[in-house]
Amino acid sequence: MPAGGPGLEPPPPQQPPDTQEAQEPDLEASDAAKPPSPAARRGAGARTALTGAGGAVAARLPALRAWLVPRLPRLVLTVVAAGLFVASFPPTNWWWAAVVAFALLAWVLTRPATTLLGGLGYGFLFGLVFYLALLPWVSLLVGAMPWVALATVCALYPALFGLFAVVVRRLPGWPIWFAVLWAAQEWLKSIFPFGGFPWGSVTFGQTNGPLLPLVQLGGVALLSTAIVLVGSSLTAIALEIAHWLRPSDRTRAADPPAVLLPGVCICLVLLTAALAWPRVRHAGTGSGGEPAVTVAIVQGNVPRLGLQFNNQRRAVLDNHVRETMRLAEDVRAGSAPQPQFVIWPEDSSDLDPLLYAEAGQEIQAAAQAIGAPILVGTVLDAAGRVQEPPEYTNTVIVWNPVSGPGDRHDKEIVQPFGEYLPMPWLFKHLSGYADRAGHFVPRSSSAVVHVAGVPVGVATCWEVIFDRAPRKAVLGGAQLLAVPSNNATFNQDMSEQQLAFAKVRAVEHDRYVLVAGTTGISAVIAPDGGELGRTEFFQPAYLDTLVRLKTSLTPATRWAPIVRWMLVGTAGAVILIGIWQNRGSLRPNRRRSRAPAEVKDPKDRKVADVAAPDDEGGEHEIFDSGRHLEELHDHRPAGAPEPGESPQPARPGDHPDLQ
After folding, report:
1. Quick one: where's region Disordered (predicted)?
2. 267 catalytically annotated
3. CA dist 411 to 346, 382, 442, 458, 635, Å?
C-alpha cells in the first residue's frame, strides 16, 4: 500500500533544491535570451573594435617607445632647425637663423646613428615643418588640403638632400659637399614639377644679411651654397673640438682638432662677401654718372580681397584711374614731381582694353592727365587660339598718352593651379578648387619694353622668383626692372616674401627694381637691396621717385647659370664617389646583439668601442667629423679588428702582456 494511507495520493517526489530553483521562472534570463537590438549590436561591435584597437596600440607602445627615445633628440633638433630656417624669411627676417638651422641639421645628419633611411626621414621632417610654416597663406586661397599637399611635395627635396648627405658625410670636406647638395636640390625644385617652385630658397631669406653681396657674384645658387657651407662648417668645428676634448680619447694630445678646412671655408665666404660689399653699397647710394629718371608707381587697391577679385574687374580699373588722377593733381599742384612714366600693377585692367573701348578710353584719359606713358597690366584674348573656354595672355602693355597702345610683354612663366590647371583630367577629380584656376597661356615675347625712351625689363609677378626671367631682361638691355604683381588673393606675409625676391634681383643684376601691386606691397628698391619707398598693404597709394638707369652687367648676370651647373655637376659627382666609397657600409649591419668580448688592453678597448652597437639596433657607422677610416688604423694595435668588425675575445697568444 502506498504510503500516506488509503484514499490519499502519494506525495510528490522530493526534488533536489537546485532542481527546484531551476524550474522557477527567471525573468532576467528570459530577457537576456531575447535577441539584441540593432543599436545594441552596433554598440557592442564598436566597444569590441575600440577594445581591440586599444589593445593593439598598447601592445605596440613598448616598441614605439624603444624606437622613439633614442631618436627624440634628433627629431627635436630637426624641428627646431626648420623653425629657425623659417625665421630667416619675411616677415621675421632673422638672416642668421638660417646659419644656425643648417648647423643643427648638419649635426643630425652626421650622427653615426643616422642611417640612410634616417637621413631621408629627417630631411623630410625638416622640409615639411619649414614649408608648412612658410606657406600658410596658400590656405587662404584654396583651403588646408592643397596647402598641406604643396608643403608635402616641397618637403621631398630636403628629404633627398638628407639621404645623400648621409652618403657623402664620410668623405673629407663634407661641409662643402653638404652645401653643393643643398644647391642641387634647390635647382631641382626650381624646375620640377610643373615648371618648378623656387619659393623657399635660402637666398631669399638673406635680404638683410651681410652675405647678400655674394648674389651679385654667382647668383642665387652661390649665396644659398655659402649659407649652408657656413652652417655645416660650424658643426664640423664643434664636432672636432668635442672629439678632441673627449676624456676617453687618449690620443688628443698628439692629434689636434682638424678645424683648418671648415675654418678656411668660413673665412673664405666672409672675405668674399666683404670684397663684394663696396661695389654693392656704392650702387645703392645712387652715386655715379648714370642718367636719372622720375618714375611713379600706382597702387589702386581692390574693393575686397579673395577670389572674388576676378569678379570686380571694372572696379579695379576705376581705382587705378582714380589714383593716377590724384597723382596728376599733385603734380600740377607742385607737391609731386612729374614722372617720366607710370607703372600700374598686374591685372590693373582685367578688361581687355583692345576689345572693350570703354576700358581703353579710361586708360587713355589717365595717361593724358598725367602726361606720361603708363605700363598697364591687363588681360588680352589669346589671338589665334579657338578654345572653349577661351584662353588669355597675362600682358603688360605700354599705353602712350597720344598714340595709345605700344610695346607689350606677355607673361612667359604662368603659375600652375592659379593661372592654369596642369593635368586637368586628374586634378579636376581631386579638388573642388581646380575649376577656379585661370585659362592663361604662356607667350614667348620680349622681356624688355620701351617706355618714354627707357628700356624697362618686365618680370610679371610669378616670373620674378625664377632666375631666368630678370636675367633675360637685363641681357636684353633693360636699364631698370619692373615687377607688376597682384597679391589680392593672398595676405601681407606673402607680399613681403615676394618683395624679398625683388630685393635679391636688384642686387643680383645691379638694377633699380620697381614693384607695383594692386593691394601692395609696392616698393622702389635700390641696387643694394634697400627700400627707397614702399606703400602700406591694402591701401590706395602712389610712389613718385627718382631712380638711375644702369647699364653694367654683373658677374651673376653673365655667369650665374654656369655657377649653378658647376654646383649641380659637383653634387652629382660627389654622390657617385660617396656611393662607391661606402658601398659596403651604406646599410647598417643589423645583427643579433652579443655580449661584448672582454678586452683587457685599453687600446683594444678603444677599437672595440668603435664597433659597439648603436642606439638604433645597428652598428655605428664610423664617422668622426670627416676623418677617414684610415686614421683609425694609425691608432689600432696590431691584431685589432677592422672597423665595423666585432672584436674577438682576447687569447693568451694574441696579447703581448700574456705571452
Report:
1. 1-45, 587-659
2. no
3. 10, 12, 6, 9, 64
